[in-house]
Write a structure and sequence with these properties.
Helix content is 46%, strand content 15%. The chain has 388 residues and is an alpha+beta fold. The protein has one domain (5-379): Creatine Kinase, Chain A, domain 2 (2-Layer Sandwich), CATH 3.30.590. The strands form 4 sheets. Strands 1, 2, 3, 4, 5, 10 and 11 form a 7-stranded antiparallel sheet that branches. A hairpin with a 4-residue loop joins strand 10 and strand 11. Helix 7 (151-161) crosses helix 11. It is globular and about 55 Å long. Residues 381-385 have low confidence and may be disordered.
């Protein structure tokens, strides 16, 4: 994916509003031991024998991960239907190989020093460039793409989505465990990936495509980035698809919750675009400062939905759940227009995992239950890993 900025701009100018694409990442695990299985190449080769998985399964740096992509859909309902069939086929295929799939933001005890990078020229180059950062990144996420027509408009949508990222992260928080310990965080994945990768986390606002393109052109001229996939920001304009991509969230243990979270993200993107169309870039306010968003990002990492976020325009704390209620009300027009229903659970994955731990379960028990729940809700109860 080159950094041809003129071509990228053309893609946004010809993009179709509110098309949807979903990307879900899974850890490949041994069903008996729950250890990470570095079998991506084997899984990917098997996927090439399935006409649907051949075009939708992909790798993401580490050999213990597989991703499935819905591809472009004209509606959120179509995206869910496309992804559900891909899920079913992937889980059936992996189960037939004597493997299982997990969907949490981190593995609770896997040693990153044992991690293997996928052996391709692209990923070998990243390993060489990133060093320890690439080695450390055994994390899993959910990404949502939405088509946004107009390059300046797409940048404006990214700018205004920045302040919603902490809430979306809090809703998704699903990685409280690492190194066989309760980290005290609701999403330690964010500390591993978002805080270590370059050009990652919350970007500064660019306001328009010209300003954005000037910065990316500088990165290219000084050899900091040679392709658009090296822009790892938590919200970004995707150069190849003409979409706005949100990539802040932890992977979700339950399939229905992954769809609900994706629906919330899609509604936020669409409503932001609708607001821009009605009120212009600044409307009744200006985007929050980087340091203000970072404060809320830390609160989401640490406390998730159990804590408060800061309303910097009023200078007050607001319970994260109250902020969520406000966002659901704000996105009602977009959800009505796009036919998106958002049925979020009472507790997110991190809250449920920590409650299970408090009730006497071990971290291994919690993870084993999560793997079983992932299999049941993503693929159906009848899918099990077959012993080899």
């Amino acid at each position: 994916m080159s950094l041809d900025l003129d071509l990228a701009r053309e893609r946004f100018e010809s993009s179709t509003d509110f098309t949807i694409g979903l990307e879900e990442e899974f850890a490949i695990v041994d069903p008996a031991t729950l250890e990470l299985a570095h079998r991506f190449e084997d899984v990917y080769a098997a996927c090439q024998q399935d006409e649907l998985l051949a075009e939708s399964a992909a790798g993401e740096l580490i050999a213990s991960e597989v991703e499935i992509r819905s591809g472009r859909a004209e509606s959120f309902a179509e995206a869910m239907a496309l992804q559900q069939e891909r899920r079913r086929r992937l889980f059936e295929l992996v189960g037939g190989m004597g493997l299982d799939l997990a969907a949490m933001g981190t593995h609770p005890w896997a040693n990153y020093l044992d991690q293997r990078i996928i052996d391709t020229p692209h990923y070998n180059r990243l390993r060489q460039e990133l060093g320890w950062v690439a080695q450390r990144n055994n994390t899993w996420s959910l990404h949502v793409h939405m088509g946004i027509r107009g390059a300046d408009r797409a940048i404006a949508v990214c700018d205004w989505l920045r302040e919603l990222l902490p809430l979306l992260l809090a809703v998704s928080a699903n990685s409280p465990f690492l190194d066989r310990r309760d980290t005290g965080l609701q999403t330690v994945r964010t500390e591993i990936f978002t805080r270590t990768f370059p050009r990652c986390g919350v970007p500064s606002p660019f306001r328009d495509w010209g300003t954005y393109a000037d910065f990316i052109d500088t990165l290219q001229s000084v050899n900091s980035a040679v392709e658009s996939t090296q822009l790892w920001w938590s919200v970004r304009p995707h150069h190849s698809f003409g979409t706005v991509e949100v990539r802040i969230c932890d992977a979700q243990t339950r399939g229905d919750e992954s769809f609900a979270l994706a629906g919330l993200i899609a509604a936020c993107i669409a409503q932001t675009a609708l607001d821009y169309d009605e009120h212009g870039y600044e409307g009744a306010a200006v985007p929050l400062l980087d340091r203000e968003i970072e404060e809320n990002l830390w609160r989401a990492i640490r406390h998730g939905l159990d804590g408060c976020l800061v309303d910097f325009r009023r200078g007050v704390e607001v319970e994260a759940r109250k902020v969520l209620e406000g966002v659901l009300a704000w996105t009602e027009p977009a959800r009505a227009q796009l036919g998106i229903e958002v049925a979020l659970p009472e507790q997110n994955g991190a809250q449920r995992a920590r409650a299970a731990l408090a009730s006497g379960a071990s971290i291994e028990d919690v993870y084993r239950g999560a793997v079983a729940e992932t299999r049941r809700t993503y693929a159906g109860a009848g899918t099990t890993a077959k012993p080899l």
